């Protein structure tokens, strides 16, 4: 038995470059910790990896030893992988049989049961299955361990004792994974960081994230959540800023929850410069903010410190130059003006004039180069998900028949407020767009091949419509098995024209496009429809940008996610003050 004078928690250092310092320990309070070969490892629940421990410092805790370098055996990934290479009767096992072999193997059965526990959030059953598997000698792989870490990090129990027990088991499982030389991945570290977060130890969570790069693993945004939110909750401002800096260095872009937490903690300590920086980061990456973030911004503008912050005199020319350089809607010259802020919830009229201060919002330009790069990246994504030859054929067709003033998502438009595919409704929209087009050219209608050849398309009236569009070079039928979303979106982007659809473009496909340029493009190019008894109404893109805007006189307008459903106007936060 090894006695430690302080409450010491042994865990792998995860530093692939260490020499013979194989494990790390971290201490805070004085306790006795007992290690023996056959007894479970006891740990406290708020400890952090700190300094390395030499081999001689933990003789008797040999079951925690690791080799000089973090090398892992690929065979640990899946115990069933070897069975995949076997043959039956000299013939290669079919894919179906291989799958059945993997599924019916002890490792496969365990995987299925643990996945069911994960879906149900049943950590107790998960731990029982894990213990049973270890007793029976089942070889656990990366997926097994990750599911167990996830379960332990998501289930804190109903009381303090349950929380401590689950945290203790979670870190025992984490250590066992390393002892078994099962290679960790991003999910491993992220789940371990979440486990540290449950223990309210953001220091440990951040240390785990920082060690990911030593294994060649790049952290994701979710990896930074546990330390960042933990530091913000504890009011540890400098540490929260350190996590933010590490995110930026790693090329991870913070989203609204992270920026909102940083904004609140910065406002709480009256860090006006940081608040200003974070408002602009919200402007570039989030654009419209949720109600919880609006309240944080609102509280800042109403604070006494905000009233005292700002330049009483500023260089008007520099401010105007900043507006031009940024494409409009902001100047980046810092807080302008002095005195109390007038903060109200308001709306914009159709021209973008504020209902509170009367200022007209800007329509922020989109760089043509950005549009070109976006079209290229879009085609690359499509090549990876569509039949490449089919999409190249479409691009060639578009070069021959384009450009167009508008592209219509035919299926979406035909089914708005309809139970069946309505060609008449689609034709009304097509004619309306042709009438308002500067060139009087028909818009491009994108329809799936099945919509063109079958169903309602077989009626004489609809056949005539389709023939007219086809002869005019204004109809493209996407091939069988394709996703027509790629086609109409690429056509609208490459033609730099309007896109007519009520599709909000929020599913997985559009998430691949990122959160920076695509929302700006969509705002300036998407035409939406409403259908009522009085007819079809086209809702053109607004003549102003729906994004956080900073005016030349120091005022701010913040769009919320409340409203803007074609029926309810969007709510805005307007903050202005008298300039002295």
TrEMBL record:
Superkingdom of source: Eukaryota
Subcellular location: Mitochondrion
Keyword field: Hydrolase, Magnesium, Manganese, Metal-binding, Mitochondrion, Nuclease, Repeat, Transit peptide, tRNA processing, Zinc
This enzyme's EC code(s): 3.1.26.5
Keyword Magnesium: yes
EC class: hydrolase
Protein's GO biological process: tRNA 5'-leader removal
InterPro entries in alphabetical order: PPR_rpt (IPR002885), PROP1-like_PPR_dom (IPR033443), PRORP_C (IPR031595), TPR-like_helical_dom_sf (IPR011990)
One term of GO molecular function: ribonuclease P activity
Ranges of residues in domain PROP1-like PPR: 98-307
Cofactor field: Mg(2+)
Annotated catalysed reactions: Endonucleolytic cleavage of RNA, removing 5'-extranucleotides from tRNA precursor
CDD domains: PIN_PRORP-Zc3h12a-like
A Gene Ontology cellular-component term: mitochondrion
Family of the protein in this entry: Belongs to the PPR family. P subfamily.
UniProt name for this protein: ribonuclease P
Species classification: Eukaryota, Viridiplantae, Streptophyta, Embryophyta, Tracheophyta
């Amino acid at each position: 038995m090894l006695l430690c004078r302080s409450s010491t928690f042994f865990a792998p250092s995860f530093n692939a470059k260490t020499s013979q310092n194989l494990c790390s320990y971290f201490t805070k309070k004085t306790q006795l910790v007992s290690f023996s070969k056959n007894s479970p490892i006891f740990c406290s629940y708020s400890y952090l990896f700190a300094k390395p421990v030499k081999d001689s410092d933990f003789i008797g805790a040999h079951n925690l030893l690791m080799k000089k370098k973090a090398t892992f055996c690929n065979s640990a990934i899946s115990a069933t992988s070897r069975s995949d290479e076997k043959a039956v009767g000299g013939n290669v096992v079919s894919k179906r049989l291989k799958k059945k072999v993997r599924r019916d193997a002890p490792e496969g059965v365990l995987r299925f049961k643990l996945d069911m526990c994960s879906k149900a959030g049943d950590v107790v059953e998960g731990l029982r299955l894990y213990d049973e598997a270890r007793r029976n000698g089942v070889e656990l792989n990366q997926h097994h361990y990750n599911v167990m870490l996830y379960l332990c990090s998501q289930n804190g129990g109903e009381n303090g004792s349950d929380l401590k027990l689950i945290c203790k088991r979670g870190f025992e499982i984490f250590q066992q994974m390393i002892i078994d030389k099962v290679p960790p991945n991003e999910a491993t570290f992220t789940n371990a960081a979440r486990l540290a977060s449950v223990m309210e130890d953001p220091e440990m969570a951040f240390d785990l994230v920082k060690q990911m790069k030593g294994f060649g693993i790049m952290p994701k945004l979710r990896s930074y959540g546990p330390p960042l939110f933990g530091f913000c909750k504890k009011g540890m401002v400098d540490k929260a800023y350190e996590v933010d800096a590490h995110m930026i260095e790693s090329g991870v872009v913070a989203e609204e929850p992270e920026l909102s937490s940083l904004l609140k903690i910065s406002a709480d300590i009256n860090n006006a410069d940081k608040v200003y920086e974070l408002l602009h980061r919200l402007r570039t990456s989030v654009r419209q903010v949720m109600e919880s973030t609006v309240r944080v911004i609102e509280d800042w503008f109403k604070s006494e410190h905000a009233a005292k912050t700002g330049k009483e005199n500023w260089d008007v020319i520099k401010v105007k130059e900043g507006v031009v350089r940024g494409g409009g809607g902001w100047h980046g010259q810092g807080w302008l003006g002095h005195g109390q802020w007038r903060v109200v919830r308001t709306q914009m009229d159709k021209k973008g004039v504020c209902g509170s201060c009367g200022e007209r919002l800007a329509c922020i330009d989109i760089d043509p180069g950005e549009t070109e790069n976006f079209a290229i990246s879009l085609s690359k994504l499509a090549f990876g998900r569509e039949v490449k030859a089919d999409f190249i054929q479409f691009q060639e067709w578009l070069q021959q028949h384009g450009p167009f003033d508008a592209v219509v998502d035919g299926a979406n438009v035909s089914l708005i407020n309809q139970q069946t595919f309505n060609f008449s409704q689609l034709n009304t929209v097509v004619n309306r767009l042709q009438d308002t087009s500067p060139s009087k050219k028909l818009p491009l209608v994108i329809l799936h091949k099945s919509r063109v050849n079958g169903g309602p398309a077989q009626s004489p009236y609809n056949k005539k419509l389709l023939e007219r569009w086809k002869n005019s070079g204004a109809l493209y039928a996407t091939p069988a098995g394709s996703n027509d979303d790629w086609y109409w979106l690429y056509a609208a982007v490459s033609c730099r024209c309007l896109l007519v659809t009520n599709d909000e473009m929020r599913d997985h496909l559009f998430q691949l496009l990122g959160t920076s340029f695509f929302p700006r493009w969509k705002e300036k190019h998407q035409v939406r429809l409403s259908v009522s008894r009085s007819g079809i109404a086209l809702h053109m893109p607004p003549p102003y940008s729906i994004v956080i805007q900073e005016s030349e006189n120091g005022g701010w307008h913040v769009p919320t996610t409340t409203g803007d459903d074609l029926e309810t106007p969007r709510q805005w936060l307007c903050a202005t003050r008298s300039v002295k």
